[in-house]
Protein 1
Amino acid sequence: MPIFEYKCAVCGIVREILCLREPRTATVPCACGAQAVYKVSAPHFDLRMGINADAFPTLGDRWARAHSDQLKKESKDG
């Protein structure tokens, strides 16, 4: 079920509408009486939803872990 955003040109309010089964409309009525126009927005997609944050480490995370392990090893040796 997609969520569509509409922005009013008069008052500037952005409104999100959950579309159950009907097609998206170009405009919807705003609370101020004007028409809010469909706004193209970026979808939100997160691979880590419901998963431990360490499950998908970034390159920076992997570098930091390797650097930390190297420092521990050096302090243990010397």
Note: The chain has a mean pLDDT of 79.
Protein 2
Amino acid sequence: MRHNDVIRESFTTQAQAFAANPWVTDEDRIQRLVAAAHLTGDERVLDIATGPGYIAEAFAGAAREVVGVDLTDAMLAIAKHRTKERGISNVSFRAADAESLPFENGAFDVVVCRLALHHVLKPLEVLREMARVCRAGGTAVVEDIYASEHPERAAYQDRWEILRDPSHVRTLALSELLQLFRDVGLETDSVTTADNLTPEVERWLATTKTPPERASEIRRLLEEDRLHDLSGTRPFQDATGRLFFHARTAILAGRKVS
């Protein structure tokens, strides 16, 4: 199966649950991402891997026009329904592959991608496409989870991430994200990190409808991680015994240099 088909299958399965999860819907996190773009109100914005459309909708409230693209029809259906219900007229959605965007060079003032790079086989190609469709002097903004700078610790995190969601490819280290910006001609203007995204493991597993055998192995790996600090995500238990971990995230904003 082609990886894009794996992505479509995974996010079709989890579309409704994903759209309802607090780590996706959190308004403060969404507004931090919008703020990183420093909008003036007249921008044309492209939201890549828009999913249920929360980011596109937020940018539509502060920009002239927003286009949201995604591989998965089930996600696009949610995004279209939400914005239609809210009467938002300056946002549109269409299916597209982030590695081969159907837009002309320099077509957008701002290009944004949230929580998607760890799902793609070629993150460099996605960043290169983001830079291509962004005008000279325009802004690219990426938010994603990031991994340990130590390869063996990063690989441990990817073990349980892939067991949960086969569309996961690899969580990049922060240094790799910065290098991608440099390699595609983006001048990094700001980097904001946070570790306050703490998914509750059982809900996190339920979102992707992880099969019981895989879920059991994930719990085992996370418990080992909790006891021996194997990935840097610092799993922990609350007073009731529920298991959580820290999904460290970074927002990078940069300008396309001419």
Note: The chain has a mean pLDDT of 96.
Protein 3
Amino acid sequence: MIPRRLVLVLALSLNLATGLLINNSQATIPNSTLVKLKIPSPERDFPIRTVYVWTPAVPVDQITVLPVVYMLHGWPGSPSGLMSAVIPQLTKAFAGGSAPFIAVFPDGNSISHPDSEWADSYDGRAKIETWLTTNVIDKVEAGNIRSKDNRAILGFSMGGYGAASIGMHHPNLYGQIISLAGYFVVDDDTNVFGNKSSQIAKIAYQSPANFAVVANQFRWFLGESHQDYTPLIRGQSVAWAKKLKGVNASYTLSSASGGHSYTFVANEIPIVTKWLKWSAVPAVTPSPEPPIETLTATQTPTVLTSP
């Protein structure tokens, strides 16, 4: 559940969708805002898809220079589940001095292929990757399209796979990839990539290992709970870290408590906010907000950073 102090605003004087700002350099947002956007997608399953844009409490005239992080949920899952784990931790981290950014939570579910893998399906019924890398960026960042140095992509579970796959498919769009309990192998439970014998090229395109050659163009954060015993997930972060080391890519390995759950995500987010690095942007100071309830780690996370 989204904390009550967050306000869902459908019509704002501050309109992130069109990049309009209040013409008052002294104006501030008294609280963070959560905006629900409906963004067209070039597909049959969901011609209109939903995106939630969370903006921290910073001076209004500085919002358009904030970096942006796109956050992908797992399956089964939805933006609301990921927001419940992430937003309270971001609020606390920004109030504590971490560099603020805008967090974007798109809906990556599909009708024809429920386990969407955040991909364009082989039959064109879902075009989630295309939608996310074109329509969503254009709408969310209208007025100031960020450089890759001020844009990152994060995902949990299936979203972790999606973040890695989409990121490496589009190295010109993202500078940092965060995979939390993600995987780096093809796992197609609902035939989104098609029959193996007839869709060899599509399956090859969806295999992260085939794009390792561009992996050194990103900073990588690989989080996997030491309590995660999910067969698909266990050991994936370490295995991918070895591939990253082989191509001289920068990576960080992190292992927080929480198993394969949103508690684990919540425990990793404070570390992620400190890990992220952005290109030069004007310093912004979040406005103070009332204390909120947050999920807390039951064990201090272990963080290892590559040389």
Note: The first helix runs from residue 79 to 95.
Protein 4
Amino acid sequence: MRPLLCLIVALTASAADRPSVLWFIVDDMSANFSCYGEKTIATPHVDRLAQEGTRFSRAYVTAPVCSPCRSALVTGMYQTTIGAHHHRSGRGELKITLPKEVTPTPKLFQQGGYYTCIGSGLTDLDFRGLPFGAGKGKKAKTGGASRLGKTDYNFEWDPAIYDSHDWAGRKSGQPFFMQVQLNGGKLRDGAEAGRVKFREHVVRELGACTDPTKVTLPPYYPRDPVLLQDWADYLDAVRLTDMHVGRVLARLEKEGQLANTLIVFMTDHGISHARGKQFLYEEGAHVPLVIRGPGIPAGQVRPDLVEHIDLAALSLSAAGLGVPAWMQGKDILAANYAKRDEAFSARDRCDETTEKIRSLRTDKFIYIRNFHPERPHLQPCAYKDGKPTVQRLRELHVAGQLPELSEKLLFSPTRPREELYELAADPHQIRNLANDPAYSAVLSEHRRRLDAKMIATKDPGPESMAMYDSDMKPYVGKGSPVIESNIAQMKKWAAEGK
């Protein structure tokens, strides 16, 4: 066949000749899976994906909290570049719109002939692994729209980018782009009565709960019964997530779709804890990433640095749709892919709590810059302070019963402006090397590289007070005294230059 004819055939090939693409996106979960070295629990289904595909050992989110992470994920762009970096922003009177050239990935798949959907991946169970309609409240709604999965984008977008909550409604032979959105670590959230029901569900599904006494905590958390039970519950949420993954895989296999579906498993940030979610340490930004499907090497482990915005690029490329020139994510599966030598992450305002932190990871080090060093690590935050773990840590702090390391890392009234950690020697980021003369050259290099990255990605300045007030308006006068008090504290610190 002549070259020109080959090109015409390739360009006009029907979407039916292309693989389907399925993303598992899980809330609030670190890489606590057997294939990543977790010893306390077994996760056979995610392990299967790793055995039959490629596991990435150093994948990072560009934002360690839901909405900016998901805004970046669905566009393949840094959330800082598109103005979607503040958590739950654009929800008030002032809105956020994407740059004109940026198109959400589901829309690109639609334009390429794909059926786009977002839901639980199962026809009978929701994102919690419970029957549709189970329980009370908004999670139990039974309307068709309620079966759509989590989006949480910070910009204005058209719901029509999703055709449905499930791929079952597509035309015969039509490939699909599916996002399976799972509750993950949030399964254990809520009051103690809800946690009891959660444990009962674990017993029904898995036979027994994880023993809190067998849990291994990071060294900066005390082995307190509240923290141990929470971590055990979290590990059981991992087990339930793994079971859900297995059920979706079984469905794909039964329908004859598994062999021709590119499957990506990832979480939207790490475990929700005092040094995890919302923060740029490994506990918050390092996530599992496993890819299985046509042409993906089986049993391979890749140790190179990758960012979660790469998912959009690699998925579009696998579907034969090409990667837009404006997209910052890279096709990390391409034969000519030049591996990253750094990974960038950013933390900004979360709900009412104003913040700005940036980080750069290289092969051996992580460099973190705190733009508000005069403030404590655990600033007032209604969401975080509502967690039993943080409440218990605060109780122990007030009582003077925390270990020295916990006090230093979690409750120091100020933070260092710069942090530098050697990851292999210090996996929990305990020893800050920023003031060590032996690492002055390393510090300077990472400082320079972060500056360059922020310029290249058009990292924005501080949020305007008008935008802050707009996003806080839904809280003010709505019976949230803690949030209102925190808003006042944020404005006071800003006025003081802190």
Note: The two ends are 68 Å apart (CA to CA).
